[in-house]
Specification:
Order of helices and strands of chain A: EEEEEEEEEEE
Shape of chain A: globular
Largest sheet of chain A: 7 strands, mixed
Oligomer: heterodimer
Mean pLDDT of chain B: 97
Strand content of chain B: over 45%
Number of helices of chain B: 0
Structural class of chain A: mainly beta
Strand content of chain A: over 45%
Radius of gyration of chain B: 13 Å
Distance between the termini of chain B: 36 Å
Chain lengths: 115, 113
């Protein structure tokens, strides 16, 4: 059974950083393309980043508005994907989901950016 | 960026009715290479993460009831739910994954009349 478990969310002040983790199981992680997607309080869904597998040189794509602030990475030895978020803004407040090829989603982790 | 225009915003239905949700993309989602439309539909129930219903515009994900039907090609797509059940009351979203950045429709809330 595919499982994706996000952790690392919480309350953070504007300008600070947070690193989200997504631990996975139930599939061959090393060949999987992984994504981070967020859902705002208004329920809007926004794709943030994708990291491909080793055979595609871990190619990465970002939403332009988070490029330079957010960094997606993966550790195939731990079957995990990460999202480093720097210089957080109040508009980054959302539930953050990791997904396996857009088909399977974790339960999400809530990030609240507020002073 | 490809803009996904989803309609209606909300829909009130009775059990047993048929409903249609529309999604229009600002650019074609049809790949000339494999003739597939890179359009997916998701269902999200309260307190849950989105669940994939349909991919490549018309292919049902494993385990999805056959009352969920995806159709369309190019820029115009439809999700049809025939014989709506109480368990189908949820938010529905379309997603284009034809080009970066992937973009979602604004969502359709399916409510009980």
């Amino acid at each position: 059974e595919v499982q994706l478990v996000e952790t690392g969310g919480g309350l953070v002040q504007p300008g600070n950083s947070l690193k989200l983790s997504c631990a996975t199981s139930g599939f061959t992680f090393s060949t999987a393309w992984m994504n981070w997607i967020r859902q705002t309080p208004g329920k809007r869904l926004e794709w943030l980043a994708q990291i491909e597998d080793k055979s595609n040189n871990y190619f990465i794509s970002y939403l332009e508005s988070v490029k330079g602030r957010f960094t997606i990475s993966r550790d195939d030895s731990k079957s995990s994907v990460y999202l480093q978020m720097n210089n957080l803004k109040e508009e980054d407040t959302a539930i953050y989901y990791c997904t396996l090829t857009l088909a399977y989603w974790g339960q999400g982790t809530l990030v609240t950016v507020s002073s | 960026d490809i803009v996904m225009t989803q309609s209606p915003f909300s829909l009130a239905v009775s059990e047993g009715e048929m409903v249609t949700i529309n999604c229009k993309s600002s650019q074609s989602l049809l790949s000339s290479g494999n003739q597939k439309n890179y359009l997916a539909w998701y269902q999200q129930k309260p307190g849950q993460s989105p669940k994939l219903l349909i991919y490549y515009a018309s292919t049902r994900q494993s385990g999805v009831p056959d009352r969920f039907i995806g159709s369309g090609s190019g820029t115009d797509f439809t999700l049809t739910i025939s014989d709506v059940q109480a368990e189908d009351l949820a938010d529905y979203y379309c997603l284009q994954h034809y080009s970066y950045p992937y973009t979602f429709g604004a969502g359709t809330k399916l409510e009980l009349k």
